[in-house]
Amino acid sequence: MDILKIALTSIGSFIALFIITKIIGKHQMSQLSMFDYINGITIGSIAAEMATSLDGYIKPFIAMVIYAIMSVLFAFITRKSTALRRMLMGEALVLYDNGKLFRKNFSRAKMDISEFLIQCRNNGYFNLANIQTALLEPNGKISFLPISEHRPMTPQDMNISPEQEKITVNVVLDGKIIYEGLKQTDNNEAWLLKQLEIQGIQLKDVFLATCDSKNNISVYVRLDKKVTYTPY
Q1: Residue pLDDT, tens place only, 5-49
Q2: What is the dihedral of CA 118, 124, 126, 128, to 10 degrees?
Q3: Host H or E run for residue 197
């Protein structure tokens, strides 16, 4: 009986957690602030307690709702007040600027030089001389402004105005036609099958097929064999 109760409360906690996450929004998944981090851990812990509690689920559920409300209120307050947002969310710290490392800000960020250099390399900067400014954002990520001479060239630099690209649409997924995506391309099933026939590919063998705004179709066939890679 206890096992059945735990199974039912687990399903209930999962549904409640899903609904609460939808209410809070996607912000917590994409950019974790300190509050989001703490709130996410707490709500997850309460959901786990709700799933395994044999004494009832009402109290943990109420606690989850309260934390969700607090999260929504916190987001509302920080949107409305710049001063409170700075106080509660924090400000960006300048770690590096114009060839200078700011030791005091490194101490405030609880970050050492080695960790900073790792972050630089992870973002494609193996030489500090290629960086103009590095900022530690309130969400814990580092933003980099490259030296102008080392940033990627843009069409604007070459006085070129390329045509605006549009999003590429999936039209086949795992051997099945995605009719909604196909409709966005203003094409039909007959056109798609004709394109596959031109390339000598059957629909059942397609793992993924995409179509761009110019009706260029890219087809990736399904390979069922196991492929491994040994980096040493």
Answers
A1: 656 665 666 666 666 665 655 444 445 555 666 666 676 777 766
A2: -90
A3: helix 189-198
Q: How many residues does the chain have?
A: 232
- Crossing angle between the packed helical segments 82-89 and 34-52, to the nearest 10 degrees: 70
DSSP 37-87: HHHHHHHHHHHHHHHH-SS-SHHHHHHHHHHHHHHHHHHHHHHH-HHHHHH
pTM of the model: 0.52
Give the span between the Cα atoms of 57 and 65, in whole angstroms: 12
Options 3.30.240.20, 3.90.1720.10, 3.30.450.20, 3.40.605.10; CATH for 169-221 is 3.30.240.20
